[in-house]
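The step that takes the researchers longest sounds almost clerical: writing a folded protein down as plain text. The outcome of that step, for a single protein, is printed below.
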Amino acid sequence: MKPFFVRDIAIDPPLILSPMAGVTDYVFRRLIKRRGGVGLVVSEFISVEGLTRGNPKSKRQMRFDEEERPFAVQIFGGRPERMAMGAEMAEEVGADILDVNCGCPAPKVVKNGGGSGLLREPDRLEDILRAIKRAISIPLTLKLRTGYSDSSINVVDVAKMAEQCGVEHIQVHGRTREQGYKGLANWDLIRQVKEAVSIPVSGNGDITSIDYGMEKWRESGVNGILIGRGAMQNPWIFRQFEDVLAGRDPYQPDLAEKKAVLLEFFEMCLGEMPEIVALGKMKQLAGQFTKGLPGGAVFRQTLYHSHSEQEILDNIEAYFTGLNGDRVRSEESSADTDLEFASCESASTVAAAI
């Protein structure tokens, strides 16, 4: 798969860290970016009502580091004039791209006319996109779902309208607002969007493995893919995709590197936020990161009941020490089996010679 461009910004490799509320903050984005293979990172979705009223949290959410570039700020809201003001603020802080959220299914967002609620009001969405386009000079992109409900699938029509408004990249999450995060994403609808517009289209939904991701990528013909939860479970997933795209075997981190990533994340959290918040962030990441690892469920329980920095560190140390012990015992057992097999084979050879 080739890199694609959002105006003059290369998305190379064509892999995007999908924005996730409460997850893709300043710390998590840098953690993932440092593992390699990410072509674009996006902020958490940011309320323009908060931004334009000077809310400190909203302003903090726009913070980014040079190592994150290209970097997109994603905003949400239902009022064209406020969305335009928020977009201007994102450009002023140095964002490379302004992304509009038309996909969040949260009731409080939808109730106020933002997120996927805009899919019910395409005329209002058009007003918002045109207002933003007049206000900024950086590229405008759009993240949307396939429709508000199964009975109102309108993603293709909305995508065509967005292209006419000057949107330069469309990202489609293959579920309706009604679905939330249940069921499987509909990649056929994503393919239909790709075929309907001439601007780059990226797909999103259920990409937690390389094989599934490559299959959906080929079937839909999209320019790029977004990965969200898959990055929480496997921070190396972008590097692995990049390896496969380049014809290499996907990178496989060892236990020492997995432990180091957890410690790195925790250290960054402690440096950026109060300890109680850092503990919550650590539990959130570890809950996803240890899925599928031996003893992961027990480790998560001990971590959830940790109430201090030292408890977290002690539990991580104990868990990975145990994993290393299991690995060594497994290797020794395998070596004994190989030795026994070799001895039997030698004995058989000698017996045959006699």
In short: The chain has a mean pLDDT of 89. DSSP finds 15 helices and ten strands in the chain. The CA atoms of residues 233 and 291 lie 7 Å apart. Residues 255-336 form one domain.
